[in-house]
Amino acid sequence: MAILPNKKIVLFLIIIILLFGGWFYYKSIKNTSLSYEAEKDDSLLAVNMTAKEILVKDADGDGLADWEEALWKTDPKNPDTDGDGMSDGEEIAAGRNPTVAGPDDELSGNLPVNKTNGADVNEWISDSKTQISARKMMLNYLALKTAKGTLTEDDKNELVNMFMGDIESAGENIKDAYDSSDINFTKSETSAAIKAYADEIKKTMFDEKKNTQENEGQIFERMLGKKKNDENIDEEISLLKDSANFYETIATQISEIKNIPKSLSAQHLDILNGINNVGSAVNDMTKIASDPISALAGFNIYKNQAKRVYYAGLSMQEFFDDYDIEVFE
Q: Lesser CB count within 10 Å: N end or C end of the chain?
C-alpha cells in the first residue's frame, strides 16, 4: 500500500501544471543584459508528466514509491529490505518496521529508525528552504501513522492536500538571508553617487559569466527525462551545481557593495535575496534522484525568485532612466 494514492499523485501534478501556467525563464547574463522571458511552453507539460512518473515510480514493486523508500530507509531495489518474507509496503501497512526482521519489529517512536545507521529525524530534515515544506508532509504522515496505525483514505487525502498547499506557496514563504541591517546605505543621492552605484551593480551582475548559457529550466527538463529512463544525469547535476555556485557568488558580491542609494534599498534587497534564493533553489533541483519532491519545490522557488529579480531590475532601471543610466537593458 503506497502512502499516496495514485489518483492523488495525478491531481498533485495537475495542480503543479496549473501553478506553473507559464514557465518563467530567467537568463541572468546575455550580452550584458538581464533578460527575463515569460512564455507558454509545451515542454512544461513534458516536465510535469515526467515528474509524475518519477514520483509514482516503484522500482521493486513493493508498494512503496521510490521516494517513500528514502523516508523509511528501505532499499528501493529490494522489495523485502529486511528479508523476513513480507514486502516493505506490507510491513508498513501492518505497523511493522521494514528495516528490522520480524517478528519483533513493530514501529515505535516518531520515525522509523534504521538500526544500521541510527538515522533519526534530524538527519533527514535539512535547513534547505525547499526541503522544509516537503518534509513537513512526511512528518505529518509519521505522526498520523504512529497515532492511528492504519491511515484512512481521508487521512491520506488530507496529507496530500496539505502538501499541495505547501508546494504552491513554496516560492512565496521563504525566509530571506539578508535584510537592511546587512547592507550599507547612503543618503547621498547626487548624480555622481547614483552613477557610482549603477556602475558597481552592473559590474557585479554582468561581468562574470556562467559556464553555460543554457537555462536551468531546460537543464532540469532534460534531467527529468533522463531520470525517467534511468539514464545518467551526472552532466546535468554538474551544470546545475555550477549555476547554483554562480548565483551564490554573485549574491555574496552584491552584499558587499557599499553606498547604496536609499531610494533603491528595496530593489537592491530584492535583487540580492532573489539571486541568493535562486542559487539555493537550483541546488535543490539537483536532488531529483534522491528527493524528487524537494526538487520540484526547488523548481517552483527558482521560478518565483527569478521573477522577483526581474521586476526589481525593472524598477531599478526606471530610477536610473531619470539619470540617463543604463544597467538593465
A: C
Per-residue pLDDT reduced to its tens digit, 200-227:
999 998 887 776 778 888 888 888 888 8
Three-state DSSP at 261 gives strand
**Between residues 34 and 263, the one the model is more confident about:** 263
| Cβ(245)–Cβ(185) below 8 Å | no
Under a CB-based contact definition with an 8 Å cutoff, are residues 327 and 317 in contact? yes
CA dist., res. 135 & res. 175, Å (int): 17
Q: In which region does residue 83 sit, left (phi positive, over 0), alpha (psi from -120 to 50) or beta (all else)? A: left
Instruction: Label residue 245 exposed, middle or buried (CB < 10 Å: 0-12, 13-18, 19+).
Output: middle
Q: How far apart are CA 50 and CA 225, in angstroms?
A: 6
The total number of residues written for the chain in this structure: 329
Residue 106 in 3-state DSSP? strand
pTM summary value: 0.63
In sequence order, what are the beta bridge partners of 105?
A: none
Residue identified by cell 496549473 is 18
**Which residues are paired to 260 by β-bridges?**
185
